[in-house]
């Protein structure tokens, strides 16, 4: 039962990472590329580390400090990755990178 | 301890899949038109490297890789923020 939960969470995280990578490749514009990766990567990495945290909690339950480390890693990623995406997008907008409109060519 | 070996194989497969997504992102980091695409792709690669480091720590059973992952997360975040500030203002340290 526990194996099924861990593998399900890991596979879901890898799925989100793949969706983010394909979005980074396929979208036509800088803003849309960050729109794809900023959310999918945060959730994907968070789910992969959450699966490993569940695995550690049940198989190595004598060293709980590692669980605390992984929890704070998830928390830090959920705070820092959207902030970095926002800062990059604000810098691009202030320096005049024009958003893509329907009918433009890919940039 | 047959389950531990099963989980080791699962972790190896997941790590290889994350490496494939990093390869997909390297295309955008090399080709991508303009400096903003390159910085965004490098930020994404750094974020995926954190998950890969934690997986490596479980695969080789070395718990010190989690500390390296924490440090790498902070360095990646600070590097992206500094680069965004530099691209926006043309200088890093302004008064």
Structural features, described:
The complex is a heterodimer of chains A (107) and B (95). Chain A has 107 residues and is mainly α. Chain A has one domain. Chain A contains three helices and no strands. Chain A has helices at residues 2-26, 30-59, 65-94. Chain A is elongated, with a radius of gyration of 18 Å. The model of chain A has no long low-confidence stretch (mean pLDDT 90). Chain B is mostly helical and 95 residues long. In chain B, helix 1 (2-31) packs antiparallel against helix 2 (35-59) and helix 2 (35-59) packs antiparallel against helix 3 (65-89). The termini of chain B are far apart.
Helix content of chain B: over 70%
Structural class of chain A comes to mainly alpha
**Which chain pair has the greatest contact?**
A-B, 50 and 44 residues
Mean pLDDT across residues of chain A: 90
Q: What is the residue-mean pLDDT of chain B, rounded to a whole number? A: 89
Termini gap of chain B: 60 Å
Strand fraction of chain B = under 5%
Write the element-wise H/E pattern of chain B from the N-terminal end onward.
Answer: HHH
| Total number of domains of chain A | 1
Low-confidence stretches of chain B: none
Give me the number of helical elements of chain B: 3
The largest sheet of chain B, given as strand count, sense and whether it forms a barrel, is: none
Quickly count the helices of chain A: 3
Oligomerization status of the protein chains: heterodimer
How many domains in all of chain B? 1
Helical content of chain A (DSSP H or I, runs of 4+): over 70%
Structural class designation of chain B: mainly alpha
Shape of chain A: elongated
From the alpha carbons, calculate the radius of gyration of chain A and give it in angstroms: 18 Å
């Amino acid at each position: 039962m526990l194996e099924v939960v861990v593998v399900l969470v890991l596979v879901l995280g890898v799925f989100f990472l793949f969706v983010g990578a394909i979005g980074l490749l396929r979208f036509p514009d800088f803003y849309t590329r960050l729109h794809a990766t900023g959310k999918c990567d945060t959730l994907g990495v968070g789910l992969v580390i959450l699966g490993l945290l569940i695995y550690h909690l049940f198989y190595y339950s004598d060293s709980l400090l590692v669980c605390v480390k992984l929890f704070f890693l998830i928390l830090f990623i959920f705070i820092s990755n959207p902030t970095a995406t926002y800062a990059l997008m604000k810098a691009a907008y202030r320096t005049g990178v024009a958003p893509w409109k329907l009918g433009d060519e890919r940039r | 301890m047959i389950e531990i070996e099963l989980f080791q194989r699962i972790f190896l497969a997941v790590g290889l899949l994350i490496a494939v997504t990093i390869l997909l992102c390297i295309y955008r980091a090399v080709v991508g038109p303009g400096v903003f695409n390159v910085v965004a792709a490098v930020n994404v690669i750094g974020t995926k490297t954190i998950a890969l480091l934690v997986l490596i720590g479980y695969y080789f059973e070395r718990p010190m890789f989690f500390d390296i992952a924490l440090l790498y997360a902070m360095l990646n975040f600070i590097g992206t923020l500094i680069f965004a500030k530099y691209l926006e203002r043309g200088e890093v340290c302004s008064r």
